[in-house]
Fold:
Amino acid sequence: MKNQNSTPQTKPLSNESGNPGSAPVQENKMGIMPVPKLLFTMSLPMMISMLVQALYNVVDSIFVSRINENALTAVSLAFPVQNLMIAVASGTAVGVNALLSRSLGEKNYEQANKAANNSIILTILSFLVFCLFGIFGSRLFFSSQTDDPQILEYGIQYMSIICTLSFGVFMQVMLERLLQSTGRTIFNMITQGTGAILNIIFDPILIFGYFGFPKMGVAGAAVATVFGQLVAMLLGIFFNFKYNTDIQLSLKRMRLDARTVKTIYAVGVPSILMMSIGSVMTFGMNNILLMFSSTAAAVFGVYFKLQSFFFMPIFGLNNGMVPIIAFNYGARKRERITQTIRLSCIFAFILMMIGLAAFQFIPGTLLRFFNASDNMIDIGSKALRTISWSYLFAAFCIVFGSVFQALGNGVYSLIVSVGRQLAVLLPAAYLLAKMFGLDAVWWAFPIAEIASITLSVLLMKRIYDQKVRDL
Structure:
């Protein structure tokens, strides 16, 4: 094993054919920088950008709630489709990230370039699917959940715009992952932060018609969102072409390569399915809660916005962790892998304890930001306090899931996610709703998380024994 503190060495850069070129390239920092410093420098920009992302998600709903509770409910009901778009974009990007980082660790620069250029084509194809859904499927989606005409009108307006103009979010996610794969996460903080800030600024302007802009209502919230995403995409294009020298993006190289696509989706499809399960769970929970009232569904939507303050930084941490593990797995550096996992678990647990404390002690204060009625505060306070007990276990489950993906076993993450959200959470929520009423429904979350941590630990031991122990 190489000394982690050794002096950076140079290596020949492979050209398109894979043969060494003449230009020396310095050893990537993911293989030599001390792990605590590396994880900090890789993850902090992503965590900050994810916090800004969480802020704009919350602000979006805060402004929408000022229209009325039905508008908040409509945006909440649209969340499964938004989550599905992110699942497809992020899942594909996870597969690209794992392949690209591993290829760089192995010094296979030809494969790294193929992964990067194929990712752009796959991103465009994904966008086209959701564009068509936005045009033809929005009304069917909302009418399957509610017959309230105002919620239908708000929901169709919002989702049609979000889907048909989703090119920005698909490209933004992929371009950020390309920067992340090569260790340039500082640029992701800029792209995500800029997009989120623009969304926050234009939300009230377009929703309520300030400064001469038309009063667009719920549609204004959607337009502000896609505008921020498009600007972030443009920044991502600039940063990749200007500063991401480890890969070469070009139109000539953008040809689908079957082997590369297969390798990407070997990790990407389980990741897409895993994150898509969240959409299925949210859709199912919304329908369970709508048996009681639209307010209960609105509470669930607000919870998802609030919990993002604690989960999104952990996702940012994982975004910094995944390329470190993938790179060092390719470079066969076991100690760096285990140290990265251990530190990530500690940081994630601290964040989850902050979330637990907030939901236990100030749930009413948090709900009042969303113009909550007394009934909504009563339902929501019980919900936040109950669900937050699951945070005792959630940190480890999230980190372990990303470790599975980084080591090329995305199917393990899928197994855990299916077990948690479909096999345990939804059935438990339905049974609790039928047997004990609305207040009991929320206990399905801690029950599901206990099942998840049990399975995650077993699979973590298995993958460690198979892939890491003997490096």
